[in-house]
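Entry 12.
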Amino acid sequence: TGSQVQYVAKGYNFKRLGFAYHGSQLVIDNLISYHYLWNQIRVQGGAYGANSQISRNGNLTFSSYRDPHLRETIHVYEKAPQFLSEFQSNQRVINSYIIGALSSLDHPLTPSQQGDRAARYTLTGVTKEFLNQEREQVFQTTLKEIHDFAPVLAECMKMQYICVLGNEK
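Predicted 3D structure (tokens):
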């Protein structure tokens, strides 16, 4: 592009590394997006935005947009496991990230969106039992689950799957 900013993404599929999905990862996703990446890449780095996405299928991605820094952003992504392993907080603060994660599960849907979701769940094998277990895991998220995900994230960040859309320089 002719722009002086870029879009920077990095990620990997943790299931390919032998790790399993757990509902607490929705809370961790919220924590990384709104606490770590927002502060490091948006506030300090000057990008328009940054987020993480941890999916049930194992895909884990970090991305930034309209980002004036490339190497610095990738470095921030690669330091995310350290952020998780050193993260200290009380359960009250963790509960705020739990609430954020629940809002991604519980929000009003139009009839068309409900149909799309039902079709997607049917095609991907997501059952009511799975959703109930996932919700329970979200509710039960503690500092331990956050710390336990740091090695998973570290293994993903070792994989050098990076995509950048920007200028040639």
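Annotation: Residues 8 and 164 are 5 Å apart (CA to CA). The helical segments are 24-43, 71-78, 80-86, 91-105, 111-124, 128-139, 143-158.
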